[in-house]
Amino acid sequence: MSARMMQEDLGEDPRLRNLEGHLRRVRERIGRGAILLGEQDGAVVFKLDLGSRGPEGVQVGGTWVPPAARGRGVATAGMRAAGDLLVPRHGWVSLHLNEANAPAMGAYLRAGFEQGAPFRLAIRAEAGNPESPAA
Asked: Which end of the chain has fewer beta carbons closer than 10 Å to its terminal beta carbon, N or C?
């Protein structure tokens, strides 16, 4: 699920570059509670990555639902459960999302999240690189 999320979000499958390294990182993150999983009818249908976390807050780094489980309220239920687990521990939960991702935005709002200020990303690229947005 981690690899499929990266493939959807970034267009790159980390298993093709380094399968063993990717599996090792995922197992390590699950072991230390940085990946949360949700099951339904014995199948994993929700994955949530935790980024930065501390006593005053936690940042959700990514969520993913398999395509076959989408549109059935899985993301809403997963985010609601994650919030119920994480808010008492950390005080607040935040996340960034692409505003164009209307299904994700709806799921987060239905799970009790509130829309905050827009997030802006600055890009730094090699000077003279024709692929650079600044070129």
From this structure: C
Report DSSP state, residue 98.
-
What is the DSSP annotation of 22-70? HHHHHHHHHHTTSEEEEEETTEEEEEEEEEEEETTEEEEEEEE--GGGT
CA distance 131 to 106: 34
Determine which helix (DSSP H) or strand (DSSP E) holds 8, and give its type and residue range.
helix 2-10
In the chain the domains, ranked by start, together with CATH numbers, are: 2-110 (3.40.630.30)
Task: Dump pLDDT digits (tens) for 60-90.
Answer: 988 999 999 999 999 999 999 999 999 998 9
Give the pLDDT confidence of 43-57 residue by residue, as tens digits: 999 999 998 888 889
